[in-house]
Design brief:
Elements lengths: L6 H20 L2 H23 L3 H8 L7 H8 L3 E3 L12 E8 L2 E8 L5 H6 L7 H16 L4 E7 L6 H5 L2 H14 L4 E10 H5 L6 E5 L3 E3 L3 H9 L5 H8 L3 H6 L5 E3 L10 H20 L3 H13 L6
Parallel strand pairs: 3-4, 4-5, 5-6, 5-7, 6-8
Antiparallel strand pairs: 1-2, 2-3
């Protein structure tokens, strides 16, 4: 699947691939010069396109069906990963995944929302929308990390917690609230990274971190643009205007001081170069963990609380 603003770039890339295939057989100087010029034109077009994306286009990019999900990044950045299952109350929620993994020999607890790619996987993962069991599983794993004094990394990528009646009956709001409350007191470093969509309490349920970071082409908001449009205009047709009004991109969040930093993505988005995107995330995790490891845990807890309490204050 290609987004509208990706099509001109892909068209030129296909042309370049054909020219390169011809060059292998002909090796003409004029053809080689044309290839070099086209490659430069593609690079310039990519830079111009992705520097000037609208907020709605960034929302589309964050939802790209080929975009890496939590398990994609975990498999790329860890030497080994052992997934843990179940909330020990009801069942295993496949929309929330987690377990221990190692980076450069350091054991870390990874937790994140997980979407699916095929129709069957999307149904199994509930489109990345956890039920209460998912948040209770996440909290169980956080407590386990605290017990063994291991840092926690959370990957956020959800259009929201599952809003169904059965989820509400089983305590959706309570589960999210319990996670938020507990994360303020966890006596281990926490880094939260928005890797795709970060919507509403569904995101906040695993997003109380000492460092909250966002990938370059992601969004973070109390509501999706479509839902905002539906409330304000009684129609989804104004989702682009809603995205502009909400100011939900990573740059917006950094400007509002609601996050602690951005992580660059490869040109064209993380879905075009997973190894590079994962390497950038890994580097950021290691750098931030090093900063956190030097702080006394009581200082860390106080700074974590102070940071979130200061949000929304003017002056």
């Amino acid at each position: 699947m290609l987004l509208d603003f990706e099509k001109p770039i892909v068209k030129l890339e296909e042309k370049l691939a054909k020219m390169q295939a011809s060059a292998k057989a002909e090796n003409e100087p004029a053809l080689m010069a044309a290839i070099a010029k086209l490659a430069g034109d593609i690079q310039a077009l990519q830079k111009r396109t992705f520097q000037n994306l609208t907020r709605w286009q960034r929302v589309q990019l964050a939802r790209h069906p080929n975009r890496p999900y939590t398990l994609d990044y975990i498999q790329q950045i860890t030497e080994n990963f052992i997934e843990l299952h179940g909330d020990r109350f009801a069942r295993d929620d496949h929309a929330m995944v987690g377990g221990f993994g190692t980076i450069n020999g350091q054991t870390i607890m990874f937790i994140g929302h997980q979407k699916g790619r095929t129709t069957k996987e999307r149904q199994m993962r509930n489109f990345g929308m956890p039920n209460p069991e998912g948040y209770r599983k996440a909290l169980r794993l956080m407590r386990l990390a605290e017990k063994f004094n291991k840092p926690i990394i959370t990957f956020i990528d959800t259009p929201g917690a599952y809003p169904g009646l059965e989820a509400e009956e089983r305590g959706q709001a309570e589960a999210i609230a319990s996670n938020i409350q507990a994360m303020f007191g966890l006596r281990v470093p926490i880094i939260s990274i928005v890797i795709g969509e970060g919507a509403s309490g569904g995101a906040l349920g695993i997003a109380i971190g000492d460092y909250v970071l966002m990938l370059e082409h992601t969004w973070y908001s109390v509501i999706t643009p479509e839902s905002c449009s539906s409330i304000l205009w009684k129609s989804w047709d104004y989702k682009e205007q809603a995205a502009e009004m909400l100011q939900i991109t990573a740059k917006d969040m950094a400007r509002f001081r609601l996050i602690d930093g951005l992580i660059k993505e490869p040109m064209g988005g993380a879905h075009r170069d997973l190894p590079t995107a994962a390497a950038l995330i890994k580097e950021s995790i290691l750098n931030h963990l090093e900063k956190l490891s030097s702080k006394p845990i009581d200082t860390l807890l106080q700074e974590r609380t102070d940071k979130f309490c200061a949000m929304g204050k003017i002056g």
